[in-house]
Amino acid sequence: MSFLKILGFDPAKHSVKTEILAGITTFLTMAYILAVNPGIFSSLEGMGMPKDAVFTATALAAIVGTLIMAIYAKKPYALAPGLGLNAFFVYTVCLTMGYSWQFALTAVLIEGIIFVILTVTNVREAIINAIPQAMKSAVSAGIGLFIAFIGLYNAHIVVGGGGTVVSLGDIMHGTAAVALIGLVITSVLMILKIRGAMLIGIILTSIVGMFFQEPVDYDNLDKGMKAVTVFTGIVDKVPSVTPILCKFEWHNIFTTDMLIVVFTFLFIDMFDTIGTVIGVSKKANAINPDGTIPGVKKVLMADAWATIAGAIFGTSTTTTYVESASGVAEGGRTGLTSFTVAVCFAIALFFAPLFTAIPSAATAPALILVGVMMMSSILDVDFNDFSESIPAYICMIMMPLAYSISDGIMMGMISYVVLNAICGKFKKINLMTWILAILFILRYALLID
Fold first, then answer.
1. What's 334's DSSP letter?
2. Is residue 403 classed as helix, strand or coil in its secondary structure?
3. Cα–Cα distance measured from residue 178 to residue 34, given in angstroms and rounded to the nearest whole number
4. Confidence at residue 384, expressed as pLDDT on a 0 to 100 scale
């Protein structure tokens, strides 16, 4: 009972059975990250970042982050490497900006340290207030579009066009066909509100992939065909995380690019966490009448330390998952719920062959549908006020079209300041917003390294 007390469990108010079932429910709704995160990072295998090691790092980051949340914050929130943040890591920092994954891991570590400092000093409020509300909403929606585009492209539903920038792929065969079948399966499960819909969808789609063929190499069709899904086993020893453990790169930390990358990680993580905590707290009826959330500082601190732990293990920013709401809806109210989630992730470590064999055709539907859920934040933008909606629109649309989350944020912030300043709406622009916009303009104008 003393251990339960450490987790914030009160036998007079809470039920062990309810808390454990709530934790299992939360795990089932977010376990898809064990397949999706290694799938996204597989694009960096040619740069020396093994997919199997990323799987282990993903699980370890989830375990440590969620345990911190359980024991320190005593809240029923679960953590794992965040979607959007992992896409920014792989597709923007490494594949577009051309930096090594070690550089990106260093940025994540620095972001986590800064987040700890900002949480301790309460300075984070100044940064939060510097970002216009419309921009906060646009960032989430833009990342949703970006993630959906990645899912469509990885599944070959959208391909590079012959006479156009992009075009529709061969959707009747191979990976694209399997992904579309998976999209239907997962969508139906979500519409019917089946618990663990995404995880079930990924598993069923992977099974479907066993009966479809795809080219061994899409760039060289003469190499023959193979099954879309190739399972090599279910249970095995835990893959070593050594190839990516504590692999940091320090010689580029004082560059403008590092500043922008760290700020973008911090920005996305901060607002994603705050939005998640607010949403889940509402679900749990844990918000005070004045709008404050009990223990929110500890929640943010747990999130910050989880990010540092994730960087050490070798994965992108670890953040609080909105899927925690599913466990809260089942009655989870204490750290016992999140402790249960951590135990589930620990067990999942031994199923690496199952998760790492899941093809992009099976994870693509999850990415596309996560994009749908992230789009809902755009409803908070006042589209009748063009001084708000135009910058928000630029931010949102530039992310997938420029193939860069950071460029979307920077273009959105610059347009917000420029348009409102020209129109004489100076009261809407605070000092921090001016500073950020000027830094972003200098980034484009001077191309400072």
1. S
2. coil
3. 20
4. 93
The total number of structural domains in the chain stands at 1
Q: Residues near 185 by Cβ (< 8 Å), separated by ≥ 6?
A: 201, 204, 205, 208, 365
Mean of the per-residue pLDDT values of the chain:
86
The amino acid occupying position 123 is: V
Given a contact cutoff of 8 angstroms between Cβ atoms, the answer to whether 137 and 390 are in contact is no
Continuous segment of H or E residues that includes residue 5: helix 2-6
For 360-407, the pLDDT digits (tens) are: 888 888 878 878 877 887 888 899 999 999 999 999 999 888 877 778
Cα–Cα distance, 182 to 203 (Å, whole number): 9
AA letter at 397: I
Does residue 175 contact residue 228 with C-beta atoms inside 8 Å? yes
Q: Are strands 225-227 and 213-215 parallel, antiparallel or unpaired?
A: antiparallel
Separation between Cα atoms, residue 280 and residue 329, nearest integer Å: 9
CB 178 within 8 A of CB 208: yes
Task: Quickly list H helices, 227-295.
Answer: 256-283
- Parallel/antiparallel/unpaired status of strands 158-160 and 225-227: unpaired
- Burial of 427 (C-beta count, 10 Å sphere; 0-12/13-18/19+): exposed
- The single-letter code of the amino acid at 187 is S
Q: What residues are paired with 213 via a beta bridge?
A: 227
Residues 6+ apart with CB under 8 A from 112: 304, 305, 306, 307, 308, 310, 311, 317
* Residue 220: exposure state from Cβ atoms within 10 A (0-12, 13-18, ≥19): exposed
| Residue 424: other Cβ atoms inside 10 A | 7
Give the domain extent around 40.
Answer: 2-446
